[in-house]
Amino acid sequence: MADITRRLGWRHLRGAPTAHVRYHRGGKLLHDGTGLSFWFRALTAALSEVPVDDRELAMTFHARTSDFQDVAVQATVTYRVSDPALAAARLDFSIDPDTGVWRGAPLEQLGTLLTETAQQHALDVLARTTLAAALVDGVAAVRERVAVGLGAEPRLPATGIEVVAVRVVALRPEPEVERALRTPARELIQQEADRATYERRAVAVERERAIAENELDSQIELARREEQLVDQRGTNARREAEEHAAADAVRAGAEAARTVRLADAEAARSVRLARAEAEGAREVGEARAQAQAAWLRVHGEVDVATLHALTGTRLAENLPNIESVTVSPDVLTGLLARFGTGERA
Fold it and tell me: What angle do CA 126, 129, 132 make, to 5 degrees?
C-alpha cells in the first residue's frame, strides 16, 4: 500500500522499493518505476501499484487417486511480477489517490489463477497414481508436474507473472485411511518395541545369570582358597609339630646325653669314692690290724698283773660316772683273792 499525504488539495505519494508505481494523467504516463516519490492532484491522477517482490502462495486442495481414494495436497508456489506494466494492464492494480489502497483484489486474482492451474496439473498426475504410490513418490511427482505445468502455462507470461519455485509440503489421505495405513507400521513398530523389550529383558536376565555365575564362581574360588588355607594351616601345624617334636627329641637327646654324662660322672665318682673308701678301709683295716698286732705284741710282752691293771683302767674309763660306790668286805676280799690268783674279773 502506497503512503499518500494530503496538502492543500495536493497529494504526495511515496512508494516502496518493492512496489512499482505507474502515474497517468490525462491518458499520459508521467511516472513509472519503483521507489518513486512525487506530488499529484487527486482529481486528474490515475495511479496503480504493482508489487515486484517475491510472494508466497500457500494452497491446499483435494484430489482422487486411481484407486478412488481422496488425498489432500498442501503446496506452496513462489512467484513475482516480472512485467509490472503488463500486469497492471491485465489486472486491476489501481489504488485510491486519497488512501493508497487497491480498489480491487489483484493478488487474490493471481492466487486463484495459480491455485487452479497447479490443482489441474496435480489432479492429472494423481488420477493415474494409486494411493500407495502417491504416498511413497507422490510428493516429488506432483511437485515436478506442477512446476512444469506452471512454467508452460501461457496465461502467466501474458499476465507478467513468473513462477520462481514450487514446493509440495504434504500429501495426506483421509484420516480413516491414514489410520488404517498407519496400523501395520504401528504394529511393526510395536513388535520392534516388544522385541527390543524382550531383548532388553533377555539381556538383563543374561546379565543377572552372568552375575550369579560370577558370584558362584567367586564363592567356589573362595571355598577352594579356604580349603587351600586349611590344608596350608594343617601343613604348617604338622610342620610346626614336627619341628617341636624334633626340637623335643634334640632336647631329650641332649638331656639324656647330659644325664648319661652325669651318670657316668657320678658312677666314675662313685667308683673313685668306692675305691677311695675301699682303699681307706683297707688302710684303716691294715692300720687297725697293725695296731692290734702292736697291741697284742705289747700285751704279750707285759706280765699279767700289768694287763689286769690296764684292764681295770680301761674298764674304769668306760664305766659311767659313779658318784658313790659301796664295797662290802666280802666283795673286796673276793676281788683281791681273784687278783692274787691271776683270774680276770
Answer: 110
Phi and psi angles of residue 29, each rounded to the nearest 5 degrees, phi first: -85, 115
Q: pLDDT per residue over 44-62, tens digit each?
A: 899 999 999 999 999 998 8
CB 173, CB 136: distance < 8 Å: no
- The overall pTM is greater than 0.70: no
Segment (H or E) for 135: helix 131-152
Whole-angstrom Cα distance, residue 138 to residue 73? 10
How does residue 9 score in pLDDT terms, banded at 50, 70 and 90? confident
Strand partners, 28: 25
Q: What is the mean pLDDT of residues 228-244?
A: 84
Q: Please, is 6 exposed, middle or buried when counting C-beta atoms within 10 Å of its C-beta (0-12, 13-18, 19+)? A: exposed
What residues have CB less than 8 Å from 91, skipping those under 6 apart?
A: 104, 106, 109, 110, 159
pLDDT score, position 316 = 65
Report whether pLDDT(152) > 70.
Answer: yes
> Whole-angstrom Cα distance, residue 170 to residue 60?
10
Q: How far from each other are the two terminal CA atoms of the chain, in whole angstroms?
A: 196
Distance CA 136, CA 130 (A): 10
- Provide the grid cell at 165: 519455485
Query: Measured between alpha carbons, how far is 156 from 89 in angstroms, rounded to an integer?
Result: 13
Task: Give residue 178's Cα distance to chain centre.
Answer: 46
- The three cell numbers of residue 320 are 659311767
Residue 289 vs residues 80, 285, 295, 329: alpha-carbon distances, Å: 176, 6, 9, 42
281-302 pLDDT per residue, tens: 777 777 777 777 766 676 666 6
